[in-house]
Specification:
The protein folds into three domains: about 1-115, Carboxypeptidase-like, regulatory domain (Immunoglobulin-like); about 120-295, Collagenase (Catalytic Domain) (3-Layer(aba) Sandwich); about 305-395, Immunoglobulin-like. Helix content is about 10%, strand content about 40%. It has helices at about 160-180, 240-255, 280-290, and strands at about 1-5, 15, 20-25, 35-40, 55, 60-65, 70, 75-85, 85-90, 90-95, 100-105, 110-115, 115-120, 150-155, 180-185, 195-200, 205-215, 225-235, 305-310, 315-320, 330-340, 340-345, 360-365, 375-385, 385-390, 395. Strands 2-3-1-6-5-8-11 form a seven-stranded antiparallel beta sheet, with no helix packed on it. Strand 24 and strand 25 form a beta hairpin. Helix 1 (about 160-180) packs across helix 2.
């Protein structure tokens, strides 16, 4: 809920409650109009944690919100969107941009995005800080998980309580070292990282950790979407050795691999001495594939995207929420299905039109075919540095 305390009416849809206004501003509240407006897009934080955001502006204007909010009928001036660090068991949730200031003028509509990443607390590890290796990609561009989204894990079969506790401890240490939030999958939930353990007589352990990744297209870096950990546990082994194995395999799932330095958990041979946690090289490698490398969020999809077809012209209206990183390109795609397959056409924008990184937009263009054909669909595709998001468009006027 957005709570507004201000001497002026800051929202078109508001109910007076003494000196406080409670705004109800859904996306379908109608077209943005008035002197100026500001859309504050608050991305979901990992773990569904409340993330308060404050907007301040001229004449004592102040808004506190924890969700995406549209502020309409704003007086001209500078408005500052402030986000604060939020405590979390795995470290802290840190806004990628703590303060963002935008200037609103008559009929000027702006948008900003508030997104969070995990900031892991400092550790005091041992060993050589340079002893790490990236599994796929390069140290400058590693293949990795999105550290701003929770990664769930869980065993495929029930485990002894003590083993569950060791796995929980290992995943917690991996969260602290990398800044990637892990959570035990809930009953009935399919885990993103599957764990399979078998127990056999013996005094050794062995295992394998695998990261599965894919790319949206040839020009985007692959990213992880699933992991698997398997282990063969000798029944006469210590709890310390078992946890060391789990740390090692989680490292593989997160995107680091073997090193020659025997003081590191990612050494190819896991020993009792590795049970203290990740060493200096391990930690540096995990930070390269973790929160310090930044979020991998694609753009937020367009809101209220509509199209009207008339006399061979297509008129589009939509609102593009702000994203981090910002949108760098928006295109219109038409897909026509036929018995022989489907064909995709990119509809050219009218001359001189520039799609916005954020905010409302309108454009009219000639179309190469009838979008009213039931075998044809039309979509807006927004792209930033991390990939693309496709939003279907409802076409009227047919």
């Amino acid at each position: 809920m957005a709570v507004i305390s201000t001497p002026i009416l800051a929202a078109a849809a508001a109910v007076a409650l003494g000196s406080t206004l409670v705004a109800t501003l859904p996306w379908d509240a109608g077209p943005i109009s008035g002197p100026g407006s500001l859309t504050v897009t608050v991305a979901d934080a990992p773990g569904d944690i409340d993330t308060p955001v404050v907007v301040t502006g001229p004449d004592g204007f102040r808004v506190e919100t924890e969700r995406t909010t549209v502020l309409r009928n704003l007086r001209p001036g500078d408005y500052t969107v402030s986000a604060t660090t939020v405590p979390n068991p795995f470290g802290e949730l840190v806004p990628q941009l703590a303060d963002q200031t935008v200037r609103i003028g008559p009929n000027l509509h702006r948008g900003v995005a508030v997104t969070y990443r995990f900031d892991s607390p400092p550790l005091v590890p041992v060993g050589d800080p340079a002893s790490y290796a990236i599994q796929s990609g390069t140290p400058d561009n590693p293949v990795r998980w999105n550290p701003c989204r929770v990664v769930t894990w869980g065993p495929l079969l029930p485990l002894p309580v003590a083993e569950e506790q060791r796995l929980t401890s290992a995943f917690a240490k991996a969260s602290i070292a990398s800044g990637i939030p892990f959570r035990r999958a809930l009953p009935g939930e399919t885990p993103m990282v599957n764990v399979t353990l078998t127990f056999e007589p013996g005094t050794t352990v062995s295992g394998e950790g695998t990261m599965f990744f894919s790319a949206d297209s040839a020009d985007t870096l692959p990213r992880a979407f699933r992991g698997e950990i398997s282990g063969v546990i000798g029944t006469e082994t210590s709890g310390e050795l078992r946890e060391a194995l789990y740390l090692h395999e989680i490292g593989h799932v997160l995107g680091i691999t073997h090193v020659e330095d025997s003081s590191q958990v990612m050494h190819s041979v896991v020993t009792e001495e590795d049970a203290f946690g990740f060493a200096a090289g391990d930690t540096n490698g995990l930070r390269l594939v973790g929160a310090e490398a930044g979020c991998l969020d694609r753009p937020i999809g367009a809101k209220d995207a509509r199209a009207v077809e008339s006399d061979g012209m297509l008129t589009l209206t939509w609102f593009q929420p702000a994203s981090v990183p910002p949108v760098v390109d928006t295109r219109v795609e038409m897909v026509t299905r036929s018995p022989g397959g489907s064909a995709t056409t990119v509809v050219p924008w009218p001359a001189g039109f520039v799609t916005p990184a954020a905010g409302p937009s309108r454009a009219a263009m000639p179309i190469p075919q009838d979008v009213c054909d039931p075998n044809t669909t039309i979509s807006l595709v927004a792209t930033n540095a991390n990939g693309s998001t496709t939003t279907p468009i409802r076409v009227t006027g047919c």
